[in-house]
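debug: dumping io for the single-chain case to check the tokenizer round-trip. Nothing else runs in this session.
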Amino acid sequence: MTSQIAAILLAAGESRRMGQPKMLLPWGATTVLGQVVSIFSAGLSSKLDRRIDPEPEILIVTGGAHTLVEAEVARLAKQYPLRMVYNPNYALGGMVSSIQAGLMALGPEIIAALIGLGDQPQVREKTVRQICTAFEQTGSPIVIPSFQNRRGHPWLVTRPLWPELLALPSTTSPRQFLDVHAAQIEYIPADESILQDLDTPEDYNSLRP
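debug: decoded output
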């Protein structure tokens, strides 16, 4: 059941290069974070059996500008099945510390986590669906989208590998973990959006709708 896959959206960055909280920037009729949430909600929900499956869980990890970001999450939670967790190590630990905060907040019923970026509003709903389908069909412990032989986001990791992620130093790059498990990765083809996020005003202005 897709309901056993939870999404962890990383929204704890300090947006230093952007110069303002990028999760709150306008994106179409919503915000950058709102667009990401809508994509993941639709991608996960599209595979649910409404007779037996609850709404998919989407967990937002906050950190930098957390008061403002959490206010936006609370607004979005009126429409989507969201929870949030604060990463107190966001300034020192980097992405792995946010992944760890998210994994520790998930319940025992979750068998796999789909790790996405809160500043990747152009990622495709289709990609989310394909990652879940690949996991369901192959049972691979790690599923990653790929564009021109480059790994992107979001990527899925199953519960048996969580202890290894949780044991990593918070300053470790996720790439090191993935390289160790390279032989276990199931890759799915995707488009360039899996590599694009919003770090600078130039990124935002060139990618916004």
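debug: round-trip ok. Strands lie at 5-11, 26-27, 30-31, 58-62, 82-86, 112-117, 142-147, 150-151, 155-158, 185-189.
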